[in-house]
Amino acid sequence: MKILLLEDDAQTSAFIEKGLRSAGHVVDSCATGRDAIFHAADGAYDVLIIDRMVPGVDGLAALKALRITGVTTPTIFLTAMDGVEDRVEGLEAGADDYLVKPFAMTELIARIDALARRPHLAQALTKIRVGELEIDLLKRSATRAGKAIDLQAQEFKLLEYLMRHAGQIVTRTMLLENVWSFHFDPQTNIIEGHVSRLRAKIDRGFGVEMIKTVRGAGYMIDAPA
Where in the chain do CATH 1.10.10.10 domains reside? Predict the structure, then answer.
């Protein structure tokens, strides 16, 4: 599953990310409630894991804001706030589960698996299709017009992000943060290089290109007219 983690303590965040990735999950992380709202707003994640005590907009306020805007992504609060009133407040704000720190990684993974067995996640999106281009999120495979496309791991992640935002302009900053987890611009051609290689695999031999460069803005993938 694709998971967004809101945790402002770098050491704790690294520990959780490592544990979840070893269990086969894809993890993006952020340290502020405002960033969590921004990243989770398009509903691209299967699960949100939120610490309540983060700088600025706290985790509770972030989840309330997401629920108000219609984001229904299953959410686990992972926090040191362990009072009964705290738990009730978290669940009433829209959380599906509440786990108190300190915690065992095995329990967190078990709770995520339990969420996956619920009907709304059991029927979760496993394939994304844009025109004749399709990716399988479980097999991590891609095809165009039924023809298999061999992609490296980072190329697949880039393509997945573009396809989740099909028809929209995706900026360099969005790609750096969401595909490479860079929160700064390394001033390299890393994006341009990967897009060029991905475009060669996706578009070459098909006559019509799907990955477009929007000059001065970013990139966009869309189905041919």
Answer: 127-221
Which tokens hold the place of 210?
């799907």
CATH topology of domain 127-221: Arc Repressor Mutant, subunit A (1.10.10)
What's the maximum distance between 2 C-alpha atoms anywhere in the chain? 61
Q: How many whole angstroms from its chain centre is CA 199?
A: 22
- Residue 139 confidence class, pLDDT cut points 50, 70, 90: confident
Considering the segment(s) 2-122 as one domain, its CATH architecture is: 3-Layer(aba) Sandwich (3.40)
60 to each of 2, 42, 68, how far by Cα in Å? 21, 19, 12
Per residue in 55-99, pLDDT (tens digit) is 889 999 999 999 988 888 999 999 999 999 999 999 999 999 999
> CB-based contacts of 175: which residues, under 8 Å, 6+ apart?
158, 161, 191, 218, 219
- Please tell me the distance from the alpha carbon of residue 217 to that of residue 225, in angstroms, as a whole number: 22
Strand partners of residue 211: 221
Tokens of 28: 């993006």
What gap in Å lies between CA 4 and CA 62, rounded to an integer? 13
Total-model pTM: 0.56
* Residues whose CB is less than 8 angstroms from the CB of residue 4 and which lie 6 or more positions away in sequence, other chains included: 27, 28, 29, 30, 36, 39, 40, 45, 47, 48, 49, 73
Q: What is the signed CA dihedral for 121, 125, 126, 129, rounded to 10 degrees?
A: 180
